[in-house]
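Suppose a classmate hands you a notebook page containing two proteins, each written out with its sequence and a corresponding row of structure tokens. How would you begin to make sense of it? This section walks through that situation. The first entry is reproduced here exactly as it would appear on such a page.
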Amino acid sequence: DLLHLPVEGTRELQAQLCFRAWRRGHAAGVAFWFDVSFGHEVILKTDPGSPPTHWKQTVVYLGAFPEVEAGDVLEAAVTLTQSEENPRQYHISIETS
């Protein structure tokens, strides 16, 4: 909730992610997108199923392609660190277990 987050709170963001595989295959990466609410009536959605905008999704490849079975639980720790050169950009790191 950026409305209540102090500016310095955006310098580094961390989250624990937990996914369940829908089908058998390989886990190659993690995709990111966002939704923003501008008041009660205007919502900007950037997910792959929403109409296109100039905002895009981001994919971070894991560098490995472990096999997964349907129903497998995949966990990761994600850290977004604001770029010192350009505060509009973030470096994304992912650690998988």
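The notebook's second entry, a different protein, reads as follows.
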Amino acid sequence: FFFPQRVTTLQKPGHSGTGTTTCPAIHMKRRRQSSIEAALLEDIKAHVNASASLLGRTLLHGQKAGDAAAAAAARRARVRRSQQIFQGDAGLAVSLQKMREEAAAIGNELRSLEAAIAMPLPGGEVVTSGGLRVSLGAARVRATALREERARVEGAVETVSSHVPEVLSTIRQVPLGPAHHHRCQTPPLLAARLRPLHAPQLAADGDLRGEVVPPRGARPTGVIDADKPSDTVVHHYVGATLPPHLCLAADLEDAEDKDDAALHAALAAGPRFLLPAASPAHIRLALHSTLQDALCCCCDGDEVILPPGRHSAAALGRLRECVTIRGAEGARSTVLTNGADDASFVEASAKSISLVGLTLRARGGGEGVVRVSRGWLSMSHCAVECGGLEGVRVLGGAHLSMSHCSVSDAFTSGIQSSRPAPKRNTYSAVLSTAFSRTQPHLHSL
């Protein structure tokens, strides 16, 4: 877009020395070329930004539809599990009735056998209720066994009748197994009778807030552009425009020899950019107006780039995709905030999430400003300002890695771990609190 400029100089009249002046026509030509170049660059930027915005809207619409379908499927699965639970509740009543009937039958047989033992035949034999002749000793052994069996069944009936709420809770929540039998002190006979009634655990794959919609995972191939199915990773930019250097380096489809439908499809696929890496690959660039829209479109492998300023999003409280959220100009310029009534600020529950160059300024979040419930959270060059609330909490089985980070103004400890940190976890955070009596430290619950 740049043209060579030749400056023609003319010697002033009456001068034979070195003084020169520029021709006015050359000045006009240079200004005209500069205006053409500027207009061309602005046109390129406008087309790239329009394409990136169109891709952002397309991804947002598609992901919302997919999330709604996943939520509907989760609700249907929850209804099926509820039906199984109700069947288990009804089956418990049926099982109780059968055990009572069995205890009564054992009692009738025992009474008949005791009457026969009291009046044996002359040869020392006993006639049972079924008409069989048995020896007196065998009849007494059988009577003893019937008494023990009746005692076991009546004991099971009494246990179930007196602990119905606990048994129903067991059926609703956790499938009974050998370990659970030992933990809940369930009688073996009762466990054997209730084994067919076990219902699956509710929300087994959900997070601590009962969310049962699964994470999106990796973006399927060919979703963005059927002609280039390998382009599945998207960098999501938040703001009015993409950075100027990306606009000039991005690749748009050639508009020549394309009908309107093909041109719209090419623009909807978004601009492409060659990602410099060990294995170079093309990524797509999407533009969003808010951080919430960007997070709603993310799949595994995507990256969200934030411009300087304050940003907030409810989706930060349920990060379940392997994404990277990056501040374009570092933590001093890019601030994430939340609402005073929010239960949490940032909750990570994915295999790998990265926060880079961000300031997390909490105004609410009683369960911890940053909560790592599962997976791995990596924080680099971040500042966590707790505002007198709980700091960073790492639950059992989750992992946290912090590098060049600071945690300040925490109510108790800056970082709390529900178990001793494994050796592979690294904590190189600078911790401080608002209370002079509390020293900076890592606290394990």
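A careful reader of the second entry would note: Residues 1-12, 171-187, 192-211, 427-445 have pLDDT under 50 and may be disordered.
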